[in-house]
Structures are given as C-alpha cells and as structure tokens.
Design goal:
Elements lengths: L1 E4 L2 E7 L3 H6 L10 E4 L4 E3 L7 E6 L5 E8 L4 E3 L8 E6 L14 E2 L5
Parallel strand pairs: 2-3
Antiparallel strand pairs: 1-2, 1-9, 3-8, 4-7, 5-6, 5-8
Length: about 110
Amino acid sequence: MFLKVNKNKINVVVAKNMADRFKGFMGKTNIDYGMLFPKCNAIHTFFMKENIDIVGLNEENQVIYIYRNLPKNQIVRIKNDIKKTSILELPKDTSKEITMGSILLFEDEDII
C-alpha cells in the first residue's frame, strides 16, 4: 500500500506479525518506505542505523503525534489507548508536509 502526501507517494509496509513488529527498521540503511504498526502506541529506535520520522494516528488515521528526525536509541510512547493508536515510521524528513490533525489516506497499489 502507499500513502500520498501532497505530490509524494510513499510505499508503506504493514507490520502484520510479531516478527515484523519486532524488527521494523532495525539495521536498515537508505530507508525509502514507511512502516505502519497497527494497534501500537510505543516504538524504540535501538539498533537502528538512521534517524526516522514518527507519526502517531488515532483510529480514524488522524495525526495525533509527530516526531521528526528521531535519533537512534530512543523510546517513544504516545499517551493514547493502544487499541486505538497506530504508529507510522517514515524515512527521516518525509513527514515535513504532514500536520497535526490531518487525516492520512492509505491506498492500495494501482492495478494495471
């Protein structure tokens, strides 16, 4: 799936299982996609090689939290119900055009 932010199209992978959720972007370099963690209100950046942007979403995919250029070896917890919160991890500086209160629309890939 992907996320459109103005004219930019960002591929997004959903962390569907425990292994995906645990690994996330650990050890990755040149990150060029996003990762969505449904029903999640906390993440860490231990063992990561790059800084990332974090966007917290409520159950309507409304932006309730933004942390840009989050450094390595950090823990972020969004003070919202875990069952009603998702976290979107993005490459550093990708969230510049995302604002608090915006509703993000995720779309499936185009079918040709």
